[in-house]
Amino acid sequence: MNNTFSFDLFNKMPLIGIMRNIPDEHLEAIAGVYLRSGLTCLEITMNSANAEQNISFLADMYGDELNIGAGTVCSMADLEKALKANAQFIVTPVINEEVIKTCVAEKVPIFPGAYTPSEIYKAWSLGAFMIKLFPAGDLKPGYIKEILAPLSFVSLVPTGGINLDNFIHYFQQGAKGVGLGSQLFPKDIINGQDWQSLAEVYVSFVNKYRDFIAGNK
């Protein structure tokens, strides 16, 4: 097991799948399909049932091939549980200075949630690896470009409202990654254990991103 976040894996396919309350019995199958499809980063939210056990399980099984992180980390108590479970990166919906500073000191990449220029700059100045731009679903066209004009040194990962039809738009605006939840974990497919259909969902995202990269070389 590798407890270290892989920047190579993230840069290869910078889509973060956000797993929230996924049935425990399907975790291994989903992670296997995820990996085989070419995706590289999985986040389990700390407000999910059995979050710590599931993070630890996936880190043990896939930590060498996938980045396994903890999301919805809102407090030091959440962070301590996530790190004890061997989370390789941390995602928060808010700016908690103590959480950010602790991650920086421990050299664990953290993606704190922020929305306004002041919030984004504050999170970045505390040492965040990237900023989770959240919620991104209602952003007006060009918001990311406008943010990056004065804050060009900041790396943004928009999350919330991202789907197959619009996720490339965020990369075109200058985002360094995106976070996706239900779009990557459709309940009907998972509850039906239709892993072939799930693979098709994943491959559609992977191919679309690869086409985008190929077109911008």
Helix-strand layout with pairing:
Elements lengths: L6 H6 L2 E5 L7 H11 L3 E5 L5 H12 L4 E5 L4 H9 L4 E3 L5 H10 L3 E2 L1 E2 L2 H9 L5 E3 L9 H6 L7 E3 L8 H6 L5 E3 L6 H5 L3 H21 L2
Parallel strand pairs: 1-2, 1-9, 2-3, 3-4, 4-5, 6-7, 7-8
Describe the 3D structure.
By secondary structure, this protein is of the alpha/beta class. Helix content is 44%, strand content 14%. The chain has helices spanning 7-12, 27-37, 51-62, 76-84, 97-106, 117-125, 143-148, 167-172, 187-191, 195-215; strands at residues 15-19, 41-45, 67-71, 89-91, 110-111, 113-114, 131-133, 156-158, 178-180. Strands 5-4-3-2-1-9 form a 6-stranded parallel β-sheet. A 3-stranded parallel β-sheet has the order 6-7-8, covered by helices on one side. Helix 2 (27-37) packs parallel to helix 10. The longest helix is centred in the C-terminal third of the chain and has 21 residues, at 195-215. It is globular, with a radius of gyration of 16 Å. The model has no long low-confidence stretch (mean pLDDT 96).
Helix content: 40-55%
Domains counted in the coordinates: how many? 1
Please write the string of helix (H) and strand (E) elements. HEHEHEHEHEEHEHEHEHH
The H-level CATH homologous superfamily, spelled out, is Aldolase class I
Name the descriptors.
single chain; 217 residues; alpha/beta; TIM Barrel; six-stranded parallel β-sheet; three-stranded parallel β-sheet; 44% helix; globular
Summarize the structure.
With 217 residues, the chain is α/β, with parallel strands linked by helices. The protein is 44% helix and 14% strand.
